[in-house]
Amino acid sequence: MTVIYAKTALLPEGWAQDVAVTLHAGRIAEVRVGVAADQQLACLLPAVANLHSHTFQRAMAGMTEYRSAGQDSFWTWRSLMYRFLDRLTPQDVQAIAAMVMVEMAEAGYGAMAEFHYLHHGVNGARYDNLAEMSLQIAAAAAETGLGLTHLPVLYERGGCDGRALAAGQLRFGNSPDQFAKLWQATQAALRDLPGDTVLGVAPHSLRAASAEGIALAANLDPEAPVHIHVAEQIAEVEEVLAATGARPVQGLLDQQAVSERWCLIHATQMLPSETEALARSGAIAGLCPITEANLGDGIFDGARFLAAGGRFGVGSDSNVQISLNAELRLLEYSQRLGLRARAVLAREGQSVGRVLYQGAALGGAQAAGRAAGAIKVGLWADLMALDCSGPDLAASSGDMILDTFVFAAGEGVVAEVWSAGRHIVTKGRHLAREAVRARYAQTVARLRAAL
Predict the structure, then answer these.
(1) Domains in the chain with CATH codes
(2) Among the options 92, 317, 382, 403, which is catalytic?
């Protein structure tokens, strides 16, 4: 057993002082309050699960900030991504994924959900093992110790009109029947990972997956998480509306049994009625504010969604920047810019930082299908401790700690991270950082030189 002592900790019922948390077999076995110790962490929090990541895109960061002919957009960014895909080998994918996982842990994330659509070789050539690329993600998780929810993606077509896949999309493509075989192979690819590992499923979007395919994927395991991109771009909404007669979010809610095990990624283009309907469904809104800003997606209707009882989490998506507090900060700031108001997401008795952090911890765990998200007996020990030695955090208490972390602290204030009890970050550094970083540096240098 391991016992962690903290001067202050955020428990489900609120802030507590002099807290002792006992870990056993990766879970929280006991929480005691009023237990002082000579060696205490300053502040202990539940760690957040990063609910949406495409790890391979980390190696593209900084490569797409040029204007092409006409107005640059998500769609021109996607074209470069497809060219980049042609260079990626399985070994590259493992090296990049490990770097992403190290950076996530150092940012304070205790687990991640990988929205994994890079299945095949160049031009769609099948590997001998259908789950070859998932094996690389699993190897990176084993090396770094970060908890993994793996979400193989069903990608059937190039658009709602059923057009064939082309260019980089060929590496994603599967028919529903082929996808079922790939998903079964992925079960074997993950079997040597720790017991907190989760296998879910991700029909890519209403553009890329048919209603029948989405239903098949969602029923491969009736209890597993289901993630889907939805309503990210205006052009996407228009295409789905023209093809089906319904906007994406409302159409998905009408067609599928959307429930608490679903996570709708982005949903930045919704009518008020869709926002409220999504909240009522119990599904998680998977928000990626940094990537959504980088790609010009739009602003999620956060105030309306929370007022309707909606649940949310955050992810780093394209991994152009991996920063937990920056994702939370931009989520609130985008609301302020859109509404020309302050403290938009605060609730009675809870500051903005508290609402953002606790909401993301609970929502991220739900989206990841992970029994975590709070410092509570029986849950996985996904924990994060802040370094409060700086003057701002040292002078803060209660919700002000989280407000300072989100809005005022820079990078480097995450001191310790546990993922299902595995102590993977200590004194701000991941235990595997140096080896992972050296391998990643070699990989990204070669990839960029080839473009």
Answers:
(1) 49-373 (3.20.20.140)
(2) 317
Rounded Cα distance between 391 and 365, Å, is 31
Runs of H (alpha helix) within 368-398: 391-394
Query: Rounded to an integer, what distance in angstroms lies between the CA atom of residue 5 and that of residue 33?
Result: 10
Annotated active-site residue 38? The verdict is no
Give me the phi and psi of 333, to 5 degrees please: -65, -35
CA distance 418 to 412: 16
Q: Which residue has tokens 């649940």?
A: 311
- Does pLDDT of 9 surpass 80? yes
Q: Give tens-digit pLDDT for 63-75.
A: 766 666 555 555 5
**Whole-number Å distance between alpha carbons of 402 and 424:** 22
Catalytic-role residue among 52, 150, 266, 430:
266
Contact between 59 and 96 (Cβ < 8 Å) = yes
- Give tens-digit pLDDT for 270-310: 999 999 999 999 999 999 999 999 999 999 999 999 999 99
Hey, CA dihedral for 121, 79, 440, 115, is it positive or negative?
Answer: negative
User: Do 424 and 145 form a contact (C-beta atoms < 8 A)?
Assistant: yes
Q: Residue 171: in which H helix or E strand, if any?
A: none
317 is catalytic: yes
pTM of structure: 0.96
